[in-house]
Amino acid sequence: APVIGVLALQGDVREHLGALTAAGADARSVRRPAELDAVEGLVIPGGESTTMSKLAVLFGMLEPLRTRVRTGMPVYGTCAGMIMLAEKILDPRSGQETVGGIDMIVRRNAFGRQNESFEAAVEVAGVAGGPVEGVFIRAPWVESVGAGVEVLAEHGGHVVAVRQGAALATSFHPELTGDHRLHRFFTDMVRSAR
Ligand code: GLN
Question: What residues make up the catalytic site (predicted)?
């Protein structure tokens, strides 16, 4: 089975480990550079991107993450993880770093106060079997993408799922539902990158 890590600095790590296992991956948490070296692919979970960024610096993980992503390791970011994969954030907190990997500009907390958390059926290109249940929690959206980025899903006229090469990102949290199709989709990306 493909060995897939979940970045375990902060956020909903356990839920992703469960969903990856259900999707047929050998899932393990990754907190240190040596643990990152041992995985074939990585999920960056939801949580709080400013905190995650600070912890990545503190744990000496930011540069190793950038290097692995730049050299083609498959990576999947959900919510705060999507923010971590953005080349640019609109209105970042001061000192907020990202890993990058997807040529996109992301707006944090984009859906606004009236609509902080909600669920919506989202049709994702490449994921068969009907829409997935998108759980959005203070979710970002993708403000704009570069030419190499595939838009996989939109909600309310805003881009909420993208892929660039081996990097995948969703604004929403498939790990919080019992539907493992996106984790299976990512596990297949890791398999085909072998
Ligand atoms: N709003 C959070 C952030 O900016 C992301 C929320 C989430 O991951 N559910 O990091």
Answer: 79 (nucleophile), 173 (charge relay system), 175 (charge relay system)
Q: What is the mean pLDDT of the chain?
A: 97
The residue annotated as part of the active site, out of 79, 97, 155, 180, is 79
Nearest to 136 by CA among 158, 152, 103: 158
Q: Give me the residue label for tokens 């953005």.
A: 86
End-to-end CA distance of the chain: 11
- Domain 3-192 classified CATH 1.20.58.410? no
Distance of CA 116 to the CA centre of its chain: 19
Rounded CA-CA distance 172/133 in Å is 9
Distance from the alpha carbon of residue 167 to the mean position of ligand 1, in angstroms: 19
Q: Which residues are annotated as a binding site for L-glutamine?
A: 47-49, 108, 137-138
DSSP letter, residue 173: -
**ipTM given for this complex:** 0.94
Round to whole Å and give the CA distance between 56 and 69.
14
Instruction: Give alpha helix (H) positions in the chain.
Output: 13-22, 33-37, 49-58, 62-70, 80-85, 181-192
Please state, in angstroms and rounded to a whole number, the distance separating the CA atoms of residues 26 and 126: 23
pTM: 0.97
Ligand 1 neighbours, Cβ below 6 Å, are 46-49, 79-80, 83, 108-109, 137-138
Contact 16, 174 (CB under 8 A): no
What is the tens place of the pLDDT at every residue in 51-97?
Answer: 999 999 999 999 999 999 999 999 999 999 999 999 999 988 888 99
